[in-house]
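#structure-requests
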Amino acid sequence: MVDKTKKRYGVVLDAGSSGTRVYIYRWDESSIARVASSSVPALPELETKDKWNMKVHPGVSTFGEKPDLVGPDHLKPLLKHALKHIPKHAVPETPIFLLATAGMRLLPDQQQKDVLRNICSYIQSETKFSLPDCDVHIQVIPGETEGLYGWVAANYLLGGFDAPKDHDHGKGHHTYGFLDMGGASAQIAFAPNATEAEKHANDLTLLRLRTTEGLPQEYKVFVTTWLGFGANEARRRYVEDLEESYAIDGILEVPDPCLPTGLRINFDGTIISDDGPSASNHYLRGVGKFDECLRRTFPLLEKDVPCLDEPCLVHGVHVPAIDFEVNHFIGISEYWHTTHEIFEMAHKDKAYDFNTYQNRVKEFCEQDWSDIQRGVKHHDYGKADEKTALEVCFKASWLINMLHDGIGIPRVGLEDTNVSDHNGTKEVLQKGKDKGFLDPFQAVNEIKSTEVSWTMGKMLLYASAEIPPASDDDLPVGFGSNEPGIPADFQYPSGGRLQTIPDTLGGSGQSITDQIHDTLFHSDAPHRLPGFILFLLILIIATFCLCGRERRARLYRSIVPGSSPSHAHAFSSPSTPKLHAPLSFFNRLLNGRKPAALHSRDLEDQRLYDPNDFELNDLSDDEGLEADKAFAHSTNSSRPASSHGRTSPRIKRHSPTGSPGKLRPAAIDRAGLVVRTESRESLVGSTNGRSKSKSRSGSPSRGH
């Protein structure tokens, strides 16, 4: 019989700007993994398959104004696909995360919240996936977090974590840098060399993993993001600049050097047919000049923005100096698609050669658009369609500028291929195979037949955190500021404290006060406000218990309308019997004193008792002691009389006319709660002839 607990599953939905892709991962349960692992410490082995992945378009950010449709119109096929590949018995134990990136970061705050709330409620109502906390499992993650997850995934697949000796880059360095570019943002993550790490220690992120043996692994990584520097956002800024420069009154055609010759498109990117009208008064016309395209995209790097913390790369953002002798970068997403889909016809594992790549881009982009259309139709460029073909010239120029002028990647192959008659890319590819990703930059899509995605880094942290530590002193898995122990912003893979989301374009994070306020009063989670009310109730009770007996008595008299010492007896009157039980409970809780047990007949005869027959707290110390003794004797109780200074009920003397005398002011005992009173008939006899020895067989003393 197969043990169904041996395999664990996890689902991550990558909600990007252009679409959402579902990823499914599987790994051995921690105890099985520990037994199966070799003597060499290794991280959990995650398994995924291409058929387990699926993407839908467009992105969740397009549902900002219609959040109620994000479930049925967007998530439904993704969830159906995930449930198809995960065994039914494993679904309730399978965590699901939807982590939105740059596209959602561009939405207004309230629209973000509305979309995320609808996503969470839809998943919870339509599936049985493990989703205990919407704020943790369904969120917009900062670009830095996305970059760190990508760094983890790349190094995990390359083997830098498990076999550091096989990846020695020199100077004790064995990890790879990570570059990612999506539609709206770009990220960089790397471990600086020892000198830079010491110099910029406060800028690093501390990351902790755990092997299947329960042993910790710790890394210090620099990671940053550039919001608005993804390929699509860069293109939008580029078009706006063209429009401001050329689209003046009377000019319909705006020349675009980044478009093939003869291509006309509207400013929204839609193609204008040869005989069709433009959707607006002006449009973009391709002129196919790639050198000019490179020059016009360079200013988009915004390298003229002041650098407040040297050194800086793009947009004045601080980045420690990169040592390319030991920092070898892996580029994914647009870095792969833009260098391979057109210019290598989607062939795998092509090394990046600056000179060969730039020559191929120039040759392609200076063609006439009609020739490119024929090539697309005949699949000369692999699976690329017309939209990919018309966008690739701008993206290629942006990528070249970002890599070499922005980040500073050396222009590999520039000299070698100028004097070679052979295919430069093939030459560099062979060198790459011999060296093993040791060039300064290598664009990849898959490593070891597995797609490189930051979602794998997220799930690896989750699987790693499930492994019990080898020592009780080991620190938890997760990441946070580069500080000893557990920093205040430490993030746990399955929940816990969440770091503030920084404004990557120069602003500051949200204050802790604002976070608490938003969590309590603006959170979309329905349990927030009731939980807050319950917390306030507990706080009030605790304060009431700690404020002292006299203060509690005064507090009661101040908040109960019409209350006075003469009205405190109302709590024990026959008209309010239901209040007696909870008050007795609180009296025992606060005083640590058990009330004398009552016979059921006493409770039934409450209607015969006159609560005005008693007064409280009107005894001197001696009188109180005598009254306690008399009370204990009359009830035949084995409980000793109250200690010196304790107050006890005292029989009130009647006036000569027989009418009840006035109650003394103290109706609340020193514990601050009303004491239940009984009639003097049940204690010392009755004026109507009741026997003084009325049966109390129900009391503890009577049982003996």
